[in-house]
Amino acid sequence: MLNFSDLVFKERGEIGPFSTPRAEVNFANGYGVSVFSEPNDRSFYELAVLKGDLLYYDSPVTDDVLRWQTPSEISEAMETIQKLEEAQ
Predict the structure, then answer these.
(1) How far is CA 34 from the centre of its chain?
(2) From 32's CA, which of 14, 22, 26, 63 has a CA 20 to 30 Å away?
(3) What's the pTM?
């Protein structure tokens, strides 16, 4: 299973007044995650669930984005998402 330490963060350019690193990974089941570091505190992260290449707001993990997450919380969410049945 992939976890937080497997994410490769790249500078993505300006988002509002901030530049924030972002990582994205897709899993074999058709889901994935997009993870940003929080612009005001880079020790926390924001996770969005992907279905294919699109944001997915109807997953068992969350119906929105998960904000102010620690690396271990990101790993837990990633594990849960990887265990979901294959995306339709």
Answers:
(1) 3
(2) 14
(3) 0.89
